[in-house]
Amino acid sequence: MIENKEKRYEPIIRICIAFLVAFAVFAAIIAICGYNPLDAFYQMFRGAFVGKFNFGSTIEDFILILIVGSAYSLTRRIGFFNLGLEGCLYIGAMFSCAPGFLLPDLPSYIIIPVCLISGMAAAAIWASIAGAMKAFLNVNEACTTIMLNYVAIALTDFLLNNPWSAHSAAPETPHVQASAMLPKLPLAPSRASTAIFIAIAVYAFVFFLTYRTTFGFKFRNVADNPRFCEAVGIKSKWVILGTVILSGALGGLAGGCEILGVYGNFIQNFSVNSAFNGIIACLLVKNNLALLPISALFIAFTRTGGNGMEYYTGVPSALIDTVVPILILFVAMDRIFDYKRLWYWLKGKLQSRAPAKAKGGSAK
Amino acid sequence: MNVSLGFVLSKIFTYSLVHDMLAASVPIVLACMCAVISRQVNIINIAAEGIIMFGCFFGVMVSYFTGSWLLAVLVSVLLGVLISAIMAVAYLKYEVNIFVLGLCINMIGTACTRFLLQVIFKTSGNFVSEKVVPIPRINLPFLSDSPVLSSIFSGYTVTEILVIPLVILLWFMLYKSVWGLQLRSVGLNEMASYTSGIDVNRKKLVALLLSGAFAGLAGAHLSLGYSCMFIENMSGGRGYMGMAAMQFGAANPIWAALGCLLFGFSNSVANRLTPYGIPNQFVTMIPYVATILILAISVISQKIRSTRQESSLRKS
């Protein structure tokens, strides 16, 4: 009875069921804790979208998540589990910030590209360590990237405490020159900047690269069948290294946008696991690039909406941080929501409960 | 400058450093054993961080409500096993990528304990209470005459002392028993062990459950033995450090535990450097950089060896 061939819409239905289940769990936990779930949802929505400040904060998160998500999507496609984007983000932020306060005053059309490119270059070099170790030595990437994250955080910590310290009370670097800041969007009290155009450009670039170029063709195939690729003349090692470097550079760009668009200087621990939000956004849609912006917006919504919910209703925003990874687990093992089998099983039950009727029906 | 440097060094490298180093290493050793067991069946388990967080929180909670540290440790261990069981179902039955799984567990661990802290204890940040019963420390009274000896050998918690036999037992089980041989053969060549009649999935399940138990123990020790409180995000990367130490020791429990001592040493030295205004970041970096270098060097030396063997064959 059960057809083996899966139709295209079936995984989508399963993912929808996953969303509904996670949503129900979320509502149930809120209700158990003694709050009103409907009120919580309403405040969450308001906290994310209503008002200039709330909407601007969502956009601010969305920028970072979209860039990191695009960067992560590149390496995910070659089967490289890049946890090192956090480190790339730190390195990129630090080295985007440095020209901003080291160089003399320059017009913004020179200083902004200089800052961003120096950050990207530094992050690319940083990513190349893990990339080269994976490609040429076949060392597991999850270990090296996590360790490099800690080294990157310690390195930026050293730089902002000693040579590049602002000598103020807080551990931070001096502010970048005013012309290096990206202009803000007209969402006044929030810190959302025109970096959103950079984010959209990055996303378009990754999309184009993945589906419309030879390089994209190569790295889409390297993960599936490296031996085939070697046989037809694709140098898979160099493709892996190139993709990881590119992904690292985009991670650095995310850090640069965060500095030039939001903060203006490098503050210690300015990004607590924010690169991981980008990774989540990519995992949530199973690396489907077309859906990535929606997923990034959703994750940004949960971040800012969670704060609004905590402020107005008292439901801890940690709850939403718990439910989002659970949702990702559900999406990752979407076969658990095998609604078709359940449907046939129910059908079978009904038929066995009324055997005479069913037999009579089939005889006719 | 030299005088002051000498003064600082004399303040740092004192006999009490040994105790600090051992105490700081123990949670990492336990997290490392979690990584070691799962690595032996060729699973890279990065979920230790999340399980440690659960272990920390439930250790403190059970100890607070029941007043029994033994029960608290048991609950933490069982909880670790339970989380690992969920992971095993997702990984073995539904074939979820192990890194996605580990990443999700880590995020749930951090966020869920923060949530529970706010809901159950109505505080945020950290939780300290006199009702939390810590794991008892064993003092050796006959050493109390000598401050050096009593600092080095006395005042360890039960779990800290238990770690040494646990590591040796694990090494013995993995390398000197049939069970361990089968377990390792699953990791070395899945196909071959399947053909020889080993239930591969069962071995992987057992390894994952054991690794969860170790991570839960690490959590309970961290919140009840190493300190006596719960702090948000208190695992602070110890799960990842354990994984790095596992790589350092090439998944051999004893070498990996020695690698953890390097982490403990650098952590305690970095802590002692902080008040003197000396940049301690480089000291913090040492174990990570060392692990990366050791990984690279070991792989390169293996490659050189194999190419040398190949070329000598070709010559003859």
Structure in words:
The complex is a heterodimer of chains A (364) and B (316). Chain A is mainly α and 364 residues long. Chain A has 15 helices and no strands. Chain A starts with 8 loop residues before the first helix and ends with a helix. The model of chain A is unreliable at 357-364 (pLDDT under 50). Chain B contains 13 helices and four strands. Chain B has a domain at 17-236. Classes of the chains: A mainly alpha (364), B mainly alpha (316). Chain A binds chain B through residues 33, 81, 83, 129, 133, 137-140, 142-144, 146-148, 150-151, 154-155, 157-158, 161-162, 276, 279-280, 283, 316, 318-319, 321-322, 324-326, 328-329, 332-333, 335-336, and chain B through 44, 46, 90, 94, 96-97, 99-101, 103-105, 107-108, 110-112, 114-115, 118-119, 124, 237, 240, 243-244, 247, 279, 281-282, 284-285, 288-289, 291-292, 295-296, 299-300, 303.
What summary fits the major beta sheet of chain A?
A: none
Q: How many individual helices of chain A? A: 15
Cα end-to-end separation of chain A: 20 Å
Strand residues, percent of chain B: under 5%
Kindly state the number of beta strands of chain A: 0
Spatial order of strands in the largest sheet of chain B = 1-4
How are helices and strands ordered from N to C of chain B?
HHHHHEEHEHHHHEHHH
| SS-derived structural category of chain B | mainly alpha
Q: Provide a count of the helices of chain B.
A: 13
Cα-atom radius of gyration of chain B: 21 Å
**Unreliable runs of chain B:** none
N-to-C SSE string of chain A, H for helix and E for strand: HHHHHHHHHHHHHHH
Total strands of chain B: the figure is 4
Shape of chain A: globular
| Biggest interface, residues from each chain | A-B, 41 and 41 residues
Q: How would you classify the quaternary structure?
A: heterodimer
Q: Structural class of the helices, strands and pairings of chain A? A: mainly alpha
Gap from first CA to last CA of chain B: 62 Å
Largest sheet features of chain B:
2 strands, antiparallel
